Fold this protein.
Amino acid sequence: MAINYQQEDHIFTLETKHSTYQMKVDAFGFLLHLYYGAKVSGNMDYLLTYYDRGFSGNPFDAGENRAYSMDVLPQEYPGIGTGDYRNCALAVENADGSECCDLRYTGHRIRKGKYALKGLPAVHAEEDEAETLEILLEDAVTKTQVKLLYGVLEEDDIITKSAEITNGGTGQIVVEKAASACLDFLTGEYDLLTFCGRHAMERNVQRDAVTCGTRSIGSRRGASSHQYNPAAILAARDTTEDAGSCYGMAFVYSGNFLCEAERDQFGQTRWTMGLNSDSFRYPLAPGETLVVPETILSYSSEGFGRLSRQYHHCIRDHVCRGKYSRQARPILLNSWEAAYFNFTGETICRLAESAAELGIDMVVMDDGWFGKREDDTSGLGDWQVNEEKLGCTLGEMIRRINSLGVKFGLWIEPEMISEDSRLYREHPDWTLRIPGREPIRSRSQLVLDFSREEVREYIFDRICQVLDQGNVEYIKWDMNRSIADVYSARTVRGKVAHDYMLGVYEFLEKLTVRFPEILLEGCCGGGGRFDAGMLYYTPQIWCSDNTDAVDRTRIQYGTSFFYPISAVGSHVSAAPNHQTGRTTSLHTRAVVAMAGTFGYELDPSKMDEAEKAEVKEQVRRYRNYEELIREGAYYRLSDPFTDCCAAWMFQREGQVLLNVVMLENHGNMPVTYVKLKGLEPEAVYQDTAGGRCYTGSALMEAGLPLPVEMGEYLAYQIELNKI
Ligand code: GLA
C-alpha cells in the first residue's frame, strides 16, 4: 500500500520507492505536515514542538495553551486568518467580507488509481500504478470545504497534490489565493532553483539561497511565460547534480502561477505552488467548486540528475497522452526560417520535394497560409486557406505532398486576432479589452476572449473546416503574445485569466478527441508556455524561437531539469543563425537538435550537395538513435553556463550516446575530460566508431579525453555499447 492511515494517531503516510511523506490530524482537527524526504519508518509526530512564541496567536480552542500556534506549526494547507502570518495556501473572502478560512479535518478516503481533475490537465496512471488519498477539510463557520487530493505513483517516486474548494455555505465567497501544493520544512537551509529567462533565451538556471522573507517567482502574463517556468527545485545548500537532497514542484498549468519560498522567524521554510493571486478573485456561489491545478512533487537524495529523470519519466509516461506520447515523432522540415511569410504553394511543395530527397518525414507550413497574412500585422482570426497565395486548394497541395511520400503539418494560432482581419471587423467585442480604453498591442495582435464559449466554438469550427480539407498529420499551436487588458465583456472580473486557460484546455481537449491521429506541438513564441499543463495535450513543444546551437545547449540544459527530451522541439537551422548571427557547423547544429524531437528549419535548396549528403546522414543517424533519445535515461554531464563544453548523454539497455559541444577554444588548449554517468561500473563499453573498450568505472571516474582541435563549437557524438 502506497497510502497508509494509522487511525490511532491519525497519521497518513504516503510511500514511494525512495521517499516518505507524512501528515497528521491533530487534537484540534488541523492537518499538520510531519515529513517529506528520504524513506523513514515510524511516526514522525515527535518532530512537532510547542513553545510559547511571542506575537504568535493561539486558536481559541487551544484554551490557555499559549504554546499552540498556527504561526509555527507545519501545515498541509494553511488557510488565511488562523493566526499564521506566513504565506498561506488559501485565502478566501467570506460572504460577510471577512478574510478567514479555518480548515479542520472532517474525513478522508483512500482508493486505487489516480484522481482526475475536471477540465484540467493532470497526471494519469493505470488503476494499479497509483493510489489516491482525499482529505476533507471544512471551515465550521462558513462551511467552505476543501478536498485535498494526493496521488501517489509509488514506483515513479511521484506524489501529486491538488485541491478542490467548494462553497458549502449560503452566501457567495471569493477565492483570493489558491495553491495546490504547500510544503513546510521544520528545519534546514535551502536554495531555490528557478528557470528564468526571456523570449529566445528561456530557462536559464538560477540558484538563490532562501533567506528570511519570501523569494517568489510567477507569471501574470496569462501564459506560464518565457520569464519564469512554473517548476522549481528546493535543494539543500550542498546539493549538486549527483549528490544531496532536493525536492521538485512542477505545476501542471499553463497560465498565471505563483511559487513562493519563505524562510520564517524560526528558520522554518514554507514552499508553495499555485495560481497567481494577483488580480485573481474567483467568486463561488453556494455549491460551486474551484478546482486548483495540480502540482507534481518528487524527492531525490541523489542530486538534481536523479530528480530530473524522475520528472522525465513521469511527464513522458503519465502527463503526455495520445498516440504519439510513446512513439517516434516525424522528422520535420518547417517553413518558418526557410521562407517566413514569403511562400506560395509551390514553395511548400518544393520543401516537400527536398524532404523526400533528404529522407525527412514531414513538411510543416508555418504562419502565413490563411486570411490576409503577408506579415505579422494582419489576418489572425481568419482561418480560411488563402488559396490565391497557395495557388491551389489545401487539399490539392497536401495530396501533392503526400504523393511524394511526405506527411503534412500546419501552424495555427487560435487564441489571437489581428485588428486587420474580417473577424475583428465583425466581432471587435470578442477580444479581451478594457471598456473605454484602447487595447495594449503586442506583435500587432490582440487576444481573443477564450473564456467565452461562443468565441471558442467559432474558432474551433473554422479550424476544423480547414483540417477536414486534407490529410493534416501535425499541428503547431502557437501563442505569440502575453495577455494584457484582462477584462471580459462576459466573464466576471477576477475569473478571466483562469477561465481563459480553462477555455484553452477545453479547446485542446476537443481538438485531440476530434483528431486523435494528429500530432500536436505546443509553441508560444518558442518556449513561453513550456509546462506540464500543455504537455498533457501536446506531447512536444517548440523549445525556443532561438535555434542557435550554442544558445540552445543552454536553453535545452535548463529545460532538461523537468521536461523529458521527447517533449523538446529542436531543429537544425541555417548558418549564420537568424537569431544570433553566429555560425556553427552543420554537424554541431545536428548534434544539438538531436537532443529533442529532431527536424530542420531551413531551405534545403540553398544547400550544396555535400551539405545535402550530410543532412541525409544526420537523418539516418537520428532514426538509429531515436528510441534511445526518446526513451533513454538522460544525464547532464556538464553545466554549459559555466563549463567549457556542453555535454550530455543518453543511456538505454547498455547503449550509450555521448554528446559534446565545445563552447570554448583557446591557444594551446588544455584537454577536456568528460565523465560519463549511470553506467555499470564492472561492465565493458565499446566505442562503436573506434572499437576501443573501456570499463564503466573508468568512463565514470576518469572520463574520456576530448580531442584538442582547431575550430569553433566543434561537436562530438560518440556511441558506446555494453559488451
Ligand atoms: C512564433 C513561433 C515561430 C513561428 C512564428 C510564426 O514566433 O515560435 O516558430 O511559428 O511564431 O509567426
About this structure: Residues 336, 366-367, 376, 411, 478, 480, 523, 525-526, 542, 545 surround alpha-D-galactopyranose (CB under 6 Å).
